[in-house]
Amino acid sequence: EDQVTQSPEALRLQEGESSSLNCSYTVSGLRGLFWYRQDPGKGPEFLFTLYSAGEEKEKERLKATLTKKESFLHITAPKPEDSATYLCAVHTGRRALTFGSGTRLQVQP
Amino acid sequence: DGGITQSPKYLFRKEGQNVTLSCEQNLNHDAMYWYRQDPGQGLRLIYYSQIVNDFQKGDIAEGYSVSREKKESFPLTVTSAQKNPTAFYLCASSTRQGGETQYFGPGTRLLVL
Prior knowledge:
The structure holds 2 protein chains of 2 kinds. Chain A is mainly β.
């Protein structure tokens, strides 16, 4: 059974304080790892897709990396508007995505 | 603008009542999905459809039903058999079933009176 574990569950940062969110996975045959951002009461917003170990993608203050066992979402010099829940999901070609429970990020000014 | 719409934003269900959540997409996507999200938990798959007139059960299909009569539409019915329906329901679509990116609608929050 595919499993996705995100840590920490919650993270509070000061504005400008860089950090990383972790997504570890146990799957057979990873075909894609996805990162989404979700604001309270809204649907998830797509951020990145990573397909193979060693791949990296960047968007503004966010950078996603992938190894054979985990993915990191690095947040550089975060701003209050980066506060949200960040969801990680994996696809193994069997059905739909398997999601982790998310990391709630709060960035204080 | 292309996208996914869900309605209503809030829905109230009375005991023993069936309710239907709407999901429409104009992205020309073949695959559509329904997820349920409970506080502090990840998204759990209810049903998915890869093509018109075909759909498969996900992990928590009991108490739910779907139809896929049109490519653009994938309504979800929460039946009276679903004893704990209070949750945030999310519809998504992708170009096809597989490792393709899924795009989500704004969600419907279902509450029980």
